[in-house]
């Protein structure tokens, strides 16, 4: 009997479709980053793109190593990780807020000595919070309607993480809050409780913004307001809308028929074509259907596989974690793509597993590894049920 082709792929653990989607996004990333990184190479490496590209390949390889390792970790250890990592994440966020490296006018990074890598603590914190919330709700599943047992205890923890991210990164804080509330909703926390909490949050948020505008305690506030106002005005200030305007030019020049790899010219004038605006650059080179639609389908496919995991498990922790992480990846992707096509103000959210990145690539691969571990657990549940029948 003939050996099946791609035997390694046949032996992948857990949900194979999640593996395939991750690999496809990585291939897209390699092609897009190699073609778009020349502007960064001129700025930092004397015009040699291979330095930055080699670093990206290394980070992708390291990320897939993390994914493979995490996929072998049992679900119970993922729960333990979330419980143990919560307090250190709070410390990292506080350290970043006070002593973070200033990059792109925002203190979002911790510079790791000796190895020259900048670490974005919010990337780790948002994943830890999602898993922590899922674990908490699973433990309190029999008291889910008791606000003193569930909503208040988990609510202040959510606000603590979101509040520490907010001063330097509004978009990540807002996205994480929405994801956390979504998990509460899927866990069947009463809608009335959630609605009252949201109203209070809006009031507190508005008060915080007003206070920040008076005493400059939120140094990024003026940037947020400026971007939102310019977006609302349809990009009236061409200097402030430079990024979004040139992203639209890149998309329009791509059209339906692709230019082909290496033929995109927007890398010469589009800010960050390898990270924040990589979706526009991909459409320019690969067209709206081959490039743009394929990426959308990839992220929707990831969310769908997460829904399959959640729908086929009897364990709340597995269901809530799969849904939460799926929403997190998909929402971040659609924010990035929405910025490129002009649906959202410029936010600086990378395209998961596609944009050039260091820690963001590692953390995204970690998330994929967790999803694969959850899928393995769910498949074992299904096998056990079949055996009993």
Which overall shape is indicated by the principal axes computed on the Cα atoms? globular
Got a strand count?
Answer: 3
The profile of the biggest β sheet is:
3 strands, antiparallel
Distance between the termini: 32 Å
Rg on CA atoms, Å: 21 Å
Q: Counting H and I runs of at least 4 residues, what is the number of helices?
A: 14
Structural class by sheet pairing and helices: mainly alpha
Largest sheet: spatial strand order: 1-2-3
Mean pLDDT: 83
Helix % is 55-70%
Order of helices and strands: HHHHHEEEHHHHHHHHH
Summed up:
With about 400 residues, the chain is mainly α.
Give a verbal description of the structure.
The chain has 389 residues and is mainly α. Helix content is 70%, strand content 4%. The protein contains 14 helices and three strands. It has helices at residues 7-10, 16-36, 38-44, 49-71, 75-99, 121-139, 151-165, 170-186, 191-215, 221-232, 242-254, 278-311, 316-341, 359-388, and strands spanning 101-103, 106-112, 117-120. A three-stranded antiparallel sheet has the order 1-2-3. Strand 1 (101-103) and strand 2 form a beta hairpin. Helix 2 (16-36) packs antiparallel against helix 14 (359-388), helix 5 packs across helix 7 and helix 7 (151-165) runs antiparallel to helix 8. The longest helix has 34 residues, at 278-311. The radius of gyration is 21 Å and the shape is globular. The model has no long low-confidence stretch (mean pLDDT 83).
């Amino acid at each position: 009997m003939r050996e099946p082709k791609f035997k390694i792929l046949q032996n992948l653990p857990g949900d194979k479709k999640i593996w395939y989607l991750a690999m496809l996004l990585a291939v897209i990333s390699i092609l897009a980053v190699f073609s778009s990184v020349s502007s960064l190479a001129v700025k930092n490496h004397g015009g040699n793109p291979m330095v930055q590209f080699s670093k990206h390949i290394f980070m992708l390889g390291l990320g897939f190593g993390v994914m493979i390792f995490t996929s072998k970790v049992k679900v119970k250890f993922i729960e333990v990780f979330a419980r143990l990592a919560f307090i250190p994440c709070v410390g990292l966020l506080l350290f970043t807020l006070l002593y973070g490296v200033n990059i792109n006018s925002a203190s979002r990074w911790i510079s790791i000595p000796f190895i020259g890598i900048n670490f974005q603590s919010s990337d780790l914190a948002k994943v830890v919070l999602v898993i922590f919330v899922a674990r908490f709700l699973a433990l309190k599943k029999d008291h889910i309607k008791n606000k003193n047992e569930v909503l208040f205890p988990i609510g202040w923890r959510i606000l603590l993480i979101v509040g520490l991210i907010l001063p330097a990164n509004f978009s990540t804080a807002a996205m994480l809050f929405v994801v956390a509330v979504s998990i509460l909703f899927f866990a069947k926390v009463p809608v009335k409780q959630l609605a009252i909490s949201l109203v209070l949050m809006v009031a507190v948020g508005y008060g915080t913004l007003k206070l920040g505008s008076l005493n400059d305690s939120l140094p990024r506030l003026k940037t947020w307001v400026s971007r939102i106002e310019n977006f609302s005005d349809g990009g009236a200030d061409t200097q402030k809308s430079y990024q979004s305007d040139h992203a639209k030019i890149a998309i329009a020049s791509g059209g339906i028929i692709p230019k082909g790899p290496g033929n995109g010219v927007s890398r010469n004038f589009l800010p960050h074509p390898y990270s924040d605006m990589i979706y526009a650059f991909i459409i320019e080179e690969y067209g709206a259907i081959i490039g743009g639609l394929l990426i959308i389908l990839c992220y929707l496919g990831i969310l769908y596989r997460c829904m399959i995991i959640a729908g086929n498990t009897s364990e709340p922790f597995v269901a809530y974690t799969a849904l939460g992480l799926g929403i997190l990846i998909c929402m971040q992707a659609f924010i990035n793509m929405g910025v490129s096509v002009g649906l959202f103000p410029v936010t600086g959210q990378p395209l998961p597993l596609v944009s050039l990145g260091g820690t963001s690539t590692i953390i995204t691969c970690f998330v994929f590894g967790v999803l694969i571990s959850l899928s393995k657990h769910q498949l074992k549940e299904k096998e056990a049920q079949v055996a009993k029948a």
